[in-house]
Every structure is written in structure tokens, then in C-alpha cells.
Design brief:
Layout (H helix, E strand, L loop, with lengths): L5 H7 L5 E7 L4 H9 L5 E2 L6 H6 L1 E4 L1 H6 L9 E6 L3 H12 L15 H10 L2 H8 L2 E7 L5 E3 L20 H10 L1 H8 L1 H5 L7 H17 L5 H14 L3 H5 L10 H7 L14
Antiparallel strand pairs: 1-3, 1-4, 2-3, 4-5, 5-6
Helix pairs in contact: 6-8, 9-11, 9-12, 11-12, 12-14
Length: about 280
């Protein structure tokens, strides 16, 4: 676990603040499985679903309970909340938002995953962001390297916005969320490839590079995820950036699919299947 910032301690100990921890069971699998077997004081946001779903879903608990599970700092799927509401009120609020407005529904947005939450705050309408943020005096999520970072919460005096504030996503928002997750999805599909490459590059830096490589590849007409993955693998393997991609001579050959993968010199590493992207 990475250390929490001093600001968390300052914020969470203020009068009227309830310090809480939200954990993504899919990212903390051992903890999720243990909680599904014996929750203790933790509460699953999927309490109406079978244990297997609860294990992989979000859990709300006190900081003391989190520490008893070995979760004493920032890491994947960890969220440290300073709530203006009680535990029960916070649970209802989070269930409302993570389950897209239907506490008994099967729609689920993984807001306990810092990658998803960072995308969501860019995609929500202003009224949605205000409605989601109202309980929070502070929220510290985990970046891709497990380091704590504050969620950008509108200040109280700005918490007034018109429009639809209900959870959920319209078609444009759904497309924007999918687009924001593309670089992560491609990197995930390339894990067997990238694992064999020695690198001290942080996950955040890899994501930033993948994002710029995807944009540059699209400028040259590559649209299929498998072709974008070829360019991301090439960039990671050769430590090349978007400028090098734009200048690459292979564009003249108009290659796609496996031919592009081979032409970029990726023959020695495993090409991800289209199903994995």
C-alpha cells in the first residue's frame, strides 16, 4: 500500500465528517473473496446478489475495518472518503450511483475503480457531477500506479446546476466512456506481450503513451482495435512516441491485421486475439 496524503487525515478528522473506505472487490480480489465469506462490519453494494457477485463488487467499510484487512493505504481499487453523511446515507448514495439509479438493477458502473471514476467526472453532465459530489468533503482514489490522488469535487458554493442530475449514461456518454477506456483495454490485451519487456515505466506513463499512439495511428487511418494494439505494442517495445509513428514508412504499405503486426517487428511477441480487445 502507498501512503495516504496528510490532507486525508486533516479532512477526515473534521467535525461532522464520516471517514469511510470504498473498495473494488475485482481489484482487491483476495479481500473481496474474504468479505463475501465473512463481511464483518463491511457492507456490499451488491448485498442482494449471490456471494460471487459480491466478492467482485464494491464494498463500503470503516477505515478501521479496512486496516484490519491489510488495506492501510492507497492501492488499486481503494477509495478513501470523507463523507458529510452517515454510513447508511453514504451507502444509499453510492449504491444509487454505482448501480445507475436502480438499487436493485443489474446495470453497474465501476466507480470504485479509479480509472473509471476519473473518466466519469469528465463525462457526467454538470448536474450529475454536482449530485454525485454533494456528500463528499474529500475523496482520494488510486491512480494506475496505486498512488493516492484527490478527486476533483466542485466546491460547496458551486453546487448548483440545472439539468438532469440522475445517474446513468446517454448514448453519447456511453461512447465517451468507452473511448476513455480504450487505452486501458488495449494495454490489458497486451499484458502477455508487455510482461516480457523490461521496463521501469509507470502504468500512468504507459497509459499516456498509449493514448498518444492511438491518436496518431487514427490520423493515419487505423481504426480497428487490433491495429491500434499493434501500434501500441510497437511503441512500448521500441520506446517510440507518436512523432515516430507518424514518420514510420510502413504507412505506405497500407497493411492491416496480422500483416501490420509482423511488419512492425512484433513477430517475437504474442499478438492478442481480437476477442481480448
Amino acid at each position: 500500500m502507498n501512503p495516504l496524503p496528510p490532507r486525508w487525515n486533516d479532512c477526515s478528522t473534521q467535525p461532522g465528517i464520516e471517514p469511510l473506505v470504498l473498495v473494488d472487490g475485482a481489484m482487491q480480489r483476495d479481500v473481496g473473496a474474504r468479505l463475501a465469506d465473512r463481511a464483518g462490519d463491511a457492507v456490499s453494494l451488491f448485498s442482494d446478489l449471490p456471494g460471487a457477485a459480491q466478492a467482485l463488487g464494491p464494498w463500503l467499510m470503516s477505515p478501521a475495518h479496512a486496516v484490519s484487512l491489510g488495506l492501510d493505504g492507497s492501492g488499486p481499487g481503494m477509495n478513501w472518503l470523507a463523507s458529510r453523511c452517515t454510513f447508511g446515507e453514504t451507502l444509499v448514495h453510492l449504491r444509487h450511483w454505482l448501480r445507475d439509479g436502480d438499487a436493485a438493477g443489474m446495470q453497474y458502473t465501476r466507480l470504485a475503480d479509479g480509472r473509471v471514476l476519473r473518466a466519469a467526472i469528465q463525462v457526467w453532465r454538470p448536474a450529475q457531477l454536482v449530485a454525485f459530489s454533494t456528500p463528499w468533503a474529500g475523496w482520494w482514489l488510486s491512480d494506475r500506479d496505486g498512488r493516492a490522488m484527490p478527486l476533483a469535487i466542485p466546491p460547496l458554493h458551486a453546487m448548483a446546476a440545472v439539468g438532469d442530475a440522475s445517474p446513468g449514461w446517454d448514448a453519447d456518454q456511453t461512447a465517451a466512456l468507452a473511448e476513455s477506456g480504450l487505452a486501458d483495454a488495449l494495454l490489458q490485451s497486451l499484458k502477455p506481450t508487455l510482461r516480457s519487456m523490461p521496463s521501469a515505466t509507470s502504468r500512468e506513463a504507459r497509459h499516456a503513451l498509449a493514448t498518444t499512439l492511438i491518436a496518431a495511428a487514427r490520423q493515419h487511418g487505423y481504426v480497428e482495435p487490433s491495429d491500434l494494439a499493434s501500434w501500441v505494442a510497437w511503441g512500448m517495445r521500441c520506446s517510440e512516441d507518436a512523432d515516430a509513428l507518424r514518420a514510420h514508412p510502413v504507412h505506405a504499405q497500407a497493411l492491416r491485421g496480422a500483416d501490420l503486426w509482423m511488419a512492425l517487428g512484433n513477430a517475437e511477441v504474442v499478438r492478442p486475439s481480437s476477442d481480448s480487445i
